[in-house]
Amino acid sequence: MAQLECHNLILGYEGTVVAKGIDFSLDKGDYLFILGENGSGKSTLAKALLRLNHTLAGEILFADGLKANRIGYLPQQTPSQQDFPASVKEIIRSGGLNRGGLFPFYSKAEKERAAAVMKQLELQPLENRCFRELSGGQQRKVLLARALMATRELLLLDEPAAALDPHATAELYQSIQSLNKEQKITVIMISHDLEAAKKYADKILHIGKDSAFFGSAEDYFEGGMSHA
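Above: the chain's sequence. Below: its structure in token form.
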């Protein structure tokens, strides 16, 4: 069985359909870009995968013990998050809280995990810095590390490079690709960046007004779907 399967999903809220005909499956280590116009249902799908909202119809299946609270999630960043008055170390450690159930404190193992994640993403020099003092690229990398604290299996990233300059964008994408290729962490990336999708994705889900495409990145770009 695939790591994640979605069958015949219809997405919406209060009875209003925003997307339908969504069928896709992912194996461990896949890198999926979810593309589509604003309002097409990309973020609604992300929230359905996280069990934060319900689908109007269809089925979402996880395999290998994966659960919604074991998905590392990086939502779109808001201005209030950019001004958050906490240290880098505190923010990264907090990413493991949803794994701890009713005990909101950091165990030795969680502290060690946070230290390993900081080392992996080369954030140790920033660990005692205040988050709001960092550059946009540094902040996004810290939030990626926070998401990584929650998972060793699947990362769900919603427009992680939005508003970053080209250098910071490239650096962030490189970090994500490293996690995908070296640790075989499955990546689901919601984005408008076709060039990044062409460079990094192996699978594409394009959500349209009345239907959805799912297939290889090669089929998507060579078949002209990117212009649909």
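The radius of gyration is 17 Å.
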